[in-house]
Specification:
This protein has 157 residues and is mainly α. Helix content is 62%, strand content 0%. It has one domain (24-144): AhpD-like (Up-down Bundle). The chain contains 7 helices and no strands. GO terms for molecular function: peroxiredoxin activity.
């Protein structure tokens, strides 16, 4: 499979990625644990069918010490006992934030309140930003048919 176009070689693409990467860096440096950030990115990417991002974030999580058991169970986190309550709240927020079109009311009050039990306002702002950024990346890669499998941790800096 080949991508539809080389977004990295496009001046518009390069400029766009500069800004979206800056937004991602703000979230990365927030108080949300990096393991939680990777779980959220993986789950949103699975929902959106983004192989490129799923490949990237499972490999980044593995390189950061995440276990294969936890990574293998992200898609079925509700039935898995290995995620903390805080991680579960973040995963549920990510799911509802990713599936906005599926829910007439968007993110439910119950899901928001569960997340607010574990994260302060700055962390909640970071989670919202994280969900928005990964969904943007997912859409870019799915639209462009960016192939998965060749990502090496750290290759983008």
């Amino acid at each position: 499979m080949e991508p539809r176009l080389n977004l990295f070689g496009s001046s518009i693409g390069a400029s766009f990625f500069k800004y979206i990467n800056s937004a991602g860096k703000v979230v990365h440096d927030s108080g949300v644990p990096h393991a939680t950030q990777e779980l959220v990115k993986i789950r949103a990417s699975q929902i959106n069918g983004c192989g490129f991002c799923t490949d990237m974030h499972t490999k980044d999580a593995t390189a950061a010490g995440e276990t294969s058991v936890r990574l293998n169970l992200v898609a079925t986190w509700r039935e898995a006992t290995i995620f903390t309550e805080a991680e579960r709240a973040a995963l549920e927020l990510a799911e509802e934030g990713t599936r906005i079109a599926d829910a007439a009311g968007g993110v439910s009050d119950e899901v928001w309140e569960a997340a607010a039990k574990h994260y302060d306002e700055e962390q909640l702002a970071a989670l919202i930003g994280l969900i928005a950024v990964i969904n943007a990346y997912n859409r870019i890669n799915v639209i462009n048919r960016q192939p998965a499998g060749d990502y090496v941790p750290g290759m983008f800096g």
